[in-house]
Amino acid sequence: MDDALRQKLDALPPEPGCYLMKDRAGEVVYVGKASSLRSRVRSYFDASRGDDRAFVALLDDLLGDLEVIVTRSEKEAVLLENELIKRYRPRFNVRLRDDKDFIVLRLDGRHPYPRLEVRRAREPRRPDARYFGPYSSASSIRETLRLVNRYFQLRTCSDHVFAHRRRPCILYQIHRCPGPCVYDVPREEYQRSVEDAVEFLEGRESELVPRLRARMEQAAEALRFEDAARLRDQVQAVERSLEKQRVLMSDRADRDVIGLYREGPDLVVQVLAMRAGKLQDSQSYPFRGQEFPEAEILSSFLSLYYEQTPAPDEVLVPIEPTEADALADVLSERRSRRVRLLTPQRGAKADLLDVAARNAEQSFRSWQEKDERREQALAALVRALHLAHPPRWMECYDISTFQGALAVGSGVSMKDGEPDKANYRRYKVKGVAGQDDFAMLYEVVTRRLRRAMAEGQFPDLIVIDGGKGQLNAALAAAKDLGVPTRPSPGNVGAPFVELCGLAKSRLLDAAALGTTRVIGRRGRRPAGGEGAAGRLADAADAAEKGFVSELARSPERVFLPGRKDPVVLRQNSAELFLLARLRDEAHRFAITFHRKLRRERNFQSVLEEIPGIGAGRKKTLLRHFGALKRVKEATVEELAEVEGFGPKQAAAVHAFFHRPEAGASAPDGAGGGAAAEPADGEEAAALATEAEIDAALAEDDANSA
Length: 705
Known about the structure:
- It contains 27 helices and 21 strands.
- It is α+β, with helices and mostly antiparallel strands.
- The chain folds into six domains: 91 residues, GIY-YIG endonuclease, CATH 3.40.1440; 107 residues, no CATH class; 113 residues, 2-Layer Sandwich (Nucleotidyltransferase, domain 5); 142 residues, Nucleotidyltransferase, domain 5 (2-Layer Sandwich); 40 residues, no CATH class; 120 residues, Orthogonal Bundle (DNA polymerase, domain 1).
- The strands form five sheets. Strands 12, 13, 14, 15, 16, 17 and 21 form a seven-stranded mixed β-sheet that branches. A five-stranded mixed β-sheet has the order 9-8-7-10-11.
- Helix 5 crosses helix 13.
């Protein structure tokens, strides 16, 4: 340790605050808090304490500078530590994943007919709404919404659709919604369904089930057998759902139980969420390279975790975290109610901690097995493609276009075998006219590599969706920019990026089909027909009749620079799955962006051709009527009711859609109907629940694609 750093250690104040450890390059590697900065920081360098952590042993060589921030209290130090970790993201601190993983259900209390909405936990909470959750997975929230919508029949459409709907949607037809948007549903009856749904979401079956049974018996006595049968199904569904949650505590308190299991620097923190005495959810959080004591790790974890999700009445922890009293005060202030941090040693609550610890160990084993399989897949990929090092950071690029129009490119990223959505990029191709995929790829890869040169960070492997031609276009872009695609023997450590092309499996040609026998359900029959065309026709006919060809498709092929023949990876192997998953994600990302641009172009190509209708009035028209079809069918009087439209503008819109030539060439899309008309607003809104869930949970679904 140099003299300047030793002088800083000697001059540390005894007040509470935070300390920032920096390496010799000036990067913050660890942020900590302390009730006494002098005692806490100097303890890292006190040999008499016998601290055998690997991180401490490396401090003399690693530590380049030390910075402290004095606070007025321990509670301020807890808050400041949280902000500094989010700002600097030090590699030795606990860092939670983005809080978009936490999903809640919100019930709007302002609307006379409220609905359940999927929201993110990080959004500001409204005082006039009720929240349920958080839910840790897409499957759990889908199952919950499915039960609520089926048996409690709350509306699913948005407030805008609710206000403008003219006829009931399909959910009304299949008895999943009473249709308050169209019919005069008594508010008292709908509010009763809302209260039942709230009790179900809160797990209060002791109040909900008897009331439903009583209503069922009343309906049966009144000979309303259909209502009685519906209530019977509702009771059975509630009982089946709630019996899955074993009652662990009889005090009906809300608490979280924290379990921790570690092996060396790797550990897993398990959170068991109990509400009203029942286990509702379990989520694990794995971390690597954590050499610090468990009390420090637990303190940082709780501070970060309960910034994203509200804390319950009690938090049971296996050991007391550092600055436990200050941390409890911070959690209580965030919740506006008292939060207690408890470390029970015996009794029922200690048994809960044991359950959490065993769950943490099981999650650790599963995490390690998954990580080991990923490492094996990366190692196999290195061997198969002769890569210079494991491709821990991979990117894939794809082009999407329709006859050369609206050409877009997509770039998706994967780190350590998992999607890295923060590095997803979309590109509008600007310098290529016509259908030239090679030139489009050249432009996209050039723009990506220029950004990498400016940032000084290159991915380990760039995968191009396509064959040898697409790969050569990407290689040309790298060559023109002077970016090496192989390690330089004379310049060890210089940045480089490796490239490969992944071509999809394809139908075999006619010559290959000539050697094929077509398998039927009852044996084999030779492929008939004369010549190549006959064999292709015979194969197509066989496919239509339920036969399949033994050699109908070629395997996936990987093209490498400087190699004539492609590499064929073993089908269904882990390394091929890794590449195909990355390629399919790039294709999905490109197609989604291209469809969005097409929809925007189709709307613009029609409405903005009307004199006096610009982008603002176009949006107002579509927002008011919900679909282009309704704009066309509207009368002059209906158009004049739109905000910002007078009689002159309404007449212009009506005249445009009812001019003589409009009937011959319906202007529903670009190019006189070349594109499909957008879906009707009411029909699209019928699937509102599915669309909202998919939109809110797209990251979680994409990770499992």
